[in-house]
Structures are given as structure tokens and as C-alpha cells.
Design a protein that fits this description.
By secondary structure, the protein is an alpha+beta fold. Helix content is 31%, strand content 21%. The chain has one domain. The longest helix is centred in the last third of the chain and has 14 residues. The radius of gyration is 13 Å and the shape is globular.
Length: 113
């Protein structure tokens, strides 16, 4: 599990595939634009993000399938009725779009191969 604040290089993306296989979980701060890749549980990444200045309401979970290049926005961590998200899926389209755009930006090298 590692916190990233910048786009990953092709080598870093390749190493993620080697380390995690075809799928890995991602927890992201969709406002401060930083992500944690490779957590066992999405909640495991929250302390790293909080220590780096994130606030809980901006942190959301999902994952990436390195083979199909599909980003998902589903995580038990996303169950937050207090933020109008009573589902594991990120329901709010703006939050969901921000999550997908952020992961796409950080892992853009995945789509260049």
C-alpha cells in the first residue's frame, strides 16, 4: 500500500501489475487529488490520507482491473448514509466522476500501452 500524489510512470504502473495482479483496490481523496493503491481494505488507506491532510468526506474507494483497464467505484468503505451514500457504489455522479478521472490521471500510462 502506497500513497501517491503525482501521476505514476509506466514502470510504476507495470510494478503495480506485478505486485497486485490483475486487480487492486484504490482509495482516493477526490478533492486534494491523492490516491493510495494496494490496500487490503479501503479503510486501511484512510489513515495515510488523513495524515497527509485529507478529510474523511473527500475519501472514496474503488479499484482498477489492469487487464481490462476498467475502473470501478465500489467499496464497503463507500457506505456512508451521512453523506447520502447508502450504497457500496459511489452514487453521487460528481464524486464518482472525480474518482474515475483521478484514477485515470494517476494511471494514464496504463492506457498508453
Amino acid at each position: 500500500m502506497k500513497l501517491y500524489t503525482n501521476e505514476l510512470s509506466k514502470n510504476e504502473v507495470d510494478q503495480l501489475f506485478i505486485e497486485y495482479g490483475k486487480y487492486t483496490k484504490i482509495t482516493a481523496d477526490i478533492v486534494d487529488k491523492k490516491i493510495v493503491i494496494g490496500c487490503v481494505l479501503h479503510a486501511d488507506a484512510e489513515p495515510l490520507l488523513l495524515e497527509s491532510g485529507s478529510i474523511t468526506e473527500n475519501i472514496w474507494g474503488g479499484g482498477i482491473n489492469f487487464e481490462t483497464k476498467v475502473i470501478d467505484t465500489t467499496a464497503v468503505f463507500n457506505l456512508r448514509p451521512s453523506l447520502n451514500n447508502p450504497s457500496m457504489e459511489i452514487i453521487d455522479s460528481e464524486r464518482r466522476s472525480k474518482f474515475i478521472e483521478l484514477v485515470s490521471k494517476f494511471l494514464k500510462e496504463l492506457w498508453t500501452t
